């Protein structure tokens, strides 16, 4: 039980316990680790390496991806900030500079 989870807001690894709450010293987010599952709607989304992704994570695209309606592909190495997990085949909702709002498949990204 010494391994505390990262902050769900900013992914800081420096969260500390205060009673039953966890507090993040970097973004001042406070949360109850017991609630974590409920807030995520039970969605389990893993990246190409099998790491669990969470809302607000930053991921990197691992291969060039064609984008419907865009003249250029989304390039490998593109950083995608502040993702949102959604249900479905394309399970990451995000906004990418130059492309706008779009959806990605988690198998084509890795956690940054
Ligand atoms: Zn934080």
Automatic annotation (TrEMBL):
<dbReference type="InterPro" id="IPR004624">
    <property type="entry name" value="YjdM"/>
</dbReference>
<dbReference type="InterPro" id="IPR013988">
    <property type="entry name" value="YjdM_C"/>
</dbReference>
<feature type="domain" description="Protein YjdM N-terminal">
    <location>
        <begin position="4"/>
        <end position="32"/>
    </location>
</feature>
<dbReference type="Pfam" id="PF03831">
    <property type="entry name" value="YjdM"/>
</dbReference>
<feature type="domain" description="Protein YjdM C-terminal">
    <location>
        <begin position="45"/>
        <end position="112"/>
    </location>
</feature>
<dbReference type="InterPro" id="IPR013987">
    <property type="entry name" value="YjdM_N"/>
</dbReference>
<protein>
    <submittedName>
        <fullName>Zinc ribbon domain-containing protein YjdM</fullName>
    </submittedName>
</protein>
<comment type="similarity">
    <text>Belongs to the YjdM family.</text>
</comment>
<dbReference type="Pfam" id="PF08274">
    <property type="entry name" value="Zn_Ribbon_YjdM"/>
</dbReference>
């Amino acid at each position: 039980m010494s391994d505390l989870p990262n902050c769900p807001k900013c992914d800081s690894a420096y969260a500390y316990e205060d009673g039953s709450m966890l507090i993040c010293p970097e973004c001042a987010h406070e949360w109850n680790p017991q609630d974590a599952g409920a807030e995520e709607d039970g969605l389990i989304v893993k990246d190409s390496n099998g790491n669990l992704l969470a809302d607000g994570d930053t991921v990197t695209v691992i291969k060039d991806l064609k984008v419907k309606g865009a003249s250029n592909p989304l390039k490998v190495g593109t950083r995608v900030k502040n993702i949102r997990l959604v249900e479905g085949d394309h399970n990451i909702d995000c906004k990418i500079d130059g492309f706008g709002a779009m959806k990605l498949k988690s198998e084509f990204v890795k956690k940054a």
